[in-house]
Specification:
Mean pLDDT: 89
Distance between the termini: 43 Å
Strand content: under 5%
Low-confidence stretches: none
Structural class: mainly alpha
Length: 56
């Protein structure tokens, strides 16, 4: 059997941020996330999610 290569800690942190940002983007793109009931654009949802994940 081949040995599975372990992922380095910096890669785990970067992957965690990426997953968090994509999850937040998906949630913010839902119509329920806006006051008007319309979905927000992908870029706006991505920017807001990235900003909220990295600043706080």
């Amino acid at each position: 059997m081949k040995r599975v290569r372990a992922i380095s800690y910096p890669a785990v942190i970067a992957l965690g941020f990426f997953i968090l940002i994509m999850f937040g983007t998906a949630l913010l793109a839902l119509p329920a996330a806006s006051r008007s009931g319309e979905s927000v654009g992908f870029v706006d949802a991505l920017f807001t999610s990235t900003s909220a994940s990295c600043v706080t």
